[in-house]
Design a protein that fits this description.
By secondary structure, the chain is mostly beta strands. It has 1 helix and 15 strands, in the order βββββαββββββββββ. Helices cover 3% and strands 38% of the residues.
Amino acid sequence: LSATSLFGQAVNSSVFEVFKLSQAVPNIISSKQSSLITVPVVVTAQVEFSACPISTADMVFEWTASAADTSLVQLLKQYTSSTVMIPERTLAPGRTYVLTCSVFKADDPTTKSIGTYSVETVPSQLQAFVAGGGRTVSVNSEIVLDASASFDPDFIGSGIDKSLQFLWECKMAQGDLKVACRNAKGVLLNLTSADYLRFPPDHLMAATSYEFSVFLFKSGRSAVASAVVHVATGSFVEDARLMLASQDRVNSKQKVSVI
């Protein structure tokens, strides 16, 4: 170390000895990310290496999380590289997980850099479906609208998801207007909060189009699906298919039977 005054006068130089204890350790850059739980979550530690010569081949990465998340902690123990992959449905929706990553040289585990990575799990969109619409039915037939196929992609339990809530609405066309649905007697339809609607024969109004909508709710989320049913007068077979009674070839003058 040497110094020179403003007037150009130099002073005696001094020499300092520096002892290098270990190789430089890269600095970890913390970050945040969000993801659905229905897909694998990949977290990669971003590091900045020193300008000093350093070998990256023997760098060791250690990952951990809150002790309360036992399964996640056990999973992270399997990784010693800069990237971890958390399988789908390992995390719970609507939470923020903080992963801690430590990096150090394999021959010097006492000198390390630590970074944190936040993973926010975003709830999936509810999926609403209605079966039984998009058709013409006889007024003399029973009519069923079924929304039981609706689901929450984040639900991991067995059986029926009892936390799903259903709300039905119905509009019927009268000229250019759509009004609240009424039955054949002119009484407003009684729409339940179940996952299906069932109407007995002759209950709905003939020569009328009914538009049913089901609203699905759960944990602050919602979805909607609609189905249109046209109620026609008279009795007829619905969803019939015309099939030849025989697959043999015939000429144009022969009679054929159909079923």
